[in-house]
Amino acid sequence: MRLTKVQARRFLLHCHGLLGEHIFHGKDGIMTFFGRTGCIQYDPVNVCGKNADIVLHSRIGGYEKSHLDELLYKDRVLIDYFDKNLCILPIEVFPVFLQEKLSGGYAEAYARQGGEAVRQIEPLIRQLIDERGHISAREVNIDKNVDWFWGVPTSLPRAALETMYFRGEFIIHHKTGTNKSYAFTKDHVPADILGAPMPYNTEEERLAWHVKRRIAAVGMLWNKAGDAWLGLRLKASERAVAFAKLLTDGEIFEVSVDGIGSLYICESDREILEYVLSQEVFAPRTEFIAPLDNLIWDRKLIAALFNFQYKWEIYTPADKRIYGAYTLPILHGDALVGRIDAARRAKELVVNNIWMEDGKLPASELKTAIEDCVRRFAEFNYG
After folding, report:
1. Pairing state of beta strands 286-288 and 328-332?
2. What pLDDT is attached to residue 362?
3. Structural domain boundaries, residue 119
């Protein structure tokens, strides 16, 4: 199947619920979106909303931050754990990622960071959770620091809790801001989920399972190295074998996009592509895209499809930033038309700057659409 870049963009955006009228609504819509994409990245930075919330705000009609908290910590149909990086996942796949971390030696490497001091206080941590049901590092009265990741020391209670969480003994019970409270996994994840069999039997099947998940998470991908594969540690040859198996098994299909070449789509999304190709016009819509949004995991693919270069400059020294630490791409219709630098200040959202891709002031219709989006974004941050 041959597609123009416009057709490919529209398919990708419609997969994400970003094109035309909202197709996802409320908590049910969030779960439908997770059923399609498999995960979204979690990041605690809150300049103008946390990454996961911005992702959902741009897609879910009537989204409120309380919806995600309820799905995670009340309904417990979603869970915090590691996939691409730290992500939010449907709880059904949590045991897969947990077992892979354990078998891959990650837990042992994590535990070594805190050393013997962590192991010594584990019984105390368990006792406190037995007594209270859940606990945060701030509630453990031990004033000692240990070496930790990123070369920065951290408190011993935090190191112990994170180590036990990483190896699956604990889950995150809830968060208050960025402060995490932990509880026993066995008390909150049903036994039938924890004991479910792996969705694959062989190493080849395992790699294919992960590759298919990443294609679904983005919507369409090419068989090239890129950030969309982070966390899988796939060699190019292994990725090629996985693609070949998925094609043979009919799990994915290939399209050729003008000026780009071969891209791959999950067979389960074929109806979405057929629908997009049958439509000539979609209702105009403007959204701000999160910096770690699934849509832009592969920045080179986005550059090729949208002619839009994006870099999250939060880790770029201030004097070397082109735009700002937390600029968000502006989506209008089926194009990425600019970027916005907005930040929470007390009880208002401040727009520091807006840059349009063509360097010109937006036409009146686009200007109004961006202003409306800013108002919705402010309500999302403070509503």
Report:
1. antiparallel
2. 85
3. 115-188
Taking phi over 0 as left and psi of -120 to 50 as alpha, with beta for the rest, 346 belongs to left
pLDDT digits (tens, 9 = 90+) for 158-209: 999 998 998 899 999 999 988 999 999 999 999 999 999 999 999 999 999 9
Where does a domain end: 188, 205, 223?
188
- Output the CA torsion sign for 354, 357, 363, 369: negative
Asked if the structure places residue 315 within a domain, the reply is yes
**Using CA atoms, how far apart are residues 99 and 115, in angstroms rounded to an integer?**
23
Q: What is the largest CA-CA distance in the chain?
A: 65
Q: 3-class secondary structure for 256-325?
A: EECCCEEEEEEHHHHHHHHHHHHCCCCCCCEEECCCCCHHHCCHHHHHHHHCCCCCCHHHCCHHHCCCCC
Q: Which residues pair with 88 in a beta bridge?
A: 40, 80
pTM: 0.95
Per the CB < 8 A criterion, the answer to whether 16 and 270 are in contact is no
Asked if residue 306 is part of any domain, the answer here is yes
**pLDDT tens by residue, 222-251:** 999 999 999 998 999 999 999 999 999 999
pLDDT at 114: 64
Any idea what the CATH number is for the domain that residue 135 is in?
A: 1.10.10
**The last residue of a domain, from among 132, 160, 188:** 188
Structural domains counted in the chain: 2
Taking Cα atoms as reference points, which of 2, 1, 17 lies closest to residue 282? 17
Please indicate, yes or no, if residue 339 is contained in any of the structural domains.
yes
H or E segment to which residue 367 belongs: helix 364-382
